[in-house]
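User: Before I run my own analysis I want an independent prediction to cross-check against. Here's the chain; please return only the structure tokens and, at the end, one sentence I can use as a sanity check.
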Amino acid sequence: MTADNAPQKDPGVPVGEGAKPAILGPLLAEAMSDDRWAECSVALISGGKSNLTYRVRSDAGELILRRPPLGHILPTAHDMGREYRVLTALRDTPVPVPRTFHLGTADSALGTPFYVMERVVGHICRDALPLGYAVTAEDRAAIGAGLIDVLAALHTVDSERVGLGDFGRPHGFMERQLRRWSEQWQRSKTGDLPALDALRDGLGEAVPGQQTAAIVHGDYRLDNTLLHPSRRGEIVAVLDWELSTLGDPLADLGALLAYWSEADDDEVLVRARMFGPVTAESGFPSRAEVVERYARATGFDVSAIGWYQAFAFFKLAVICQGIALRATGGAMLGSGFDDAQGLVEPLVQAGHYHLGRAGDRRSGRTPATATTRVGLGSTS
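Assistant: Structure tokens:
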């Protein structure tokens, strides 16, 4: 958990690496037309698995800087221009986003694409809620409702009206996503994983028809939002837009549900948890209630949501494999990568769990409460 955009407390991370004040200060002074930025301090907020995020402070105030991670990155990942564009476009919509100020290119003194935006104060909750925050079930219910309502608001924004009509190719979105992440798997694999291949094939055999196109976030979850410091349930900013595009909105809903925990989850889902089970606390809606509220707000048909949940776990498994590969090469900055390889198998199993239940629903059978364990090959 990171509260109020607090700097990362990892003694092994050089906080200025990737955004050295001596380089960044003069660059910001010119970009912001304010010489007070020439002398600045930089603190790493988060780094490694996603783009690097820094808090920059000077006599002129505070800003947030985003840049790609250090070291090798996979093709199409960590696109600063896309993040900057979608944040700027959503500024005057019901979707809460930070104001953007400057987009820098790889030709800048920093040597990499980056952008700066306003610092929005709030709570980022990953593994637990802050001590004394949202202490009642009613407070937690409000947070759950806020998450769903903001996602629904995003998916009902008119992309043409906000200048994002060409932000992606929504037709055939899930087919391309499945193909893209299958290709990423081929780039990241260190050994054969038959169960992952089987999950990919099963998804490919049952891709749902896309009912609409919308602006999708690409990684919408609790810890990619900022919660208001005191007004429970109010989301003051949605963060981390690097995977945003035009596509199938149910991909976002499936991803949110993949991160969602319930108190009585089957063991296969418990093993696949990537963060602490915050939403398993009393008051948070169940996954079924999340789907119901979202459907009411958007009017979308959500009957195929099990497939999208299975795809979300497939994608997460591929991402974790890529993280593990880069971590072994020393290319990842930050902590929290020791378990990436170990998460691949549980994520694949969770994908099979949801794909099986989705198949049961299509055939009219009662979904099973457990799943048969699919063997995985060696990753050595």
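Sanity check: The longest strand covers residues 52-58.
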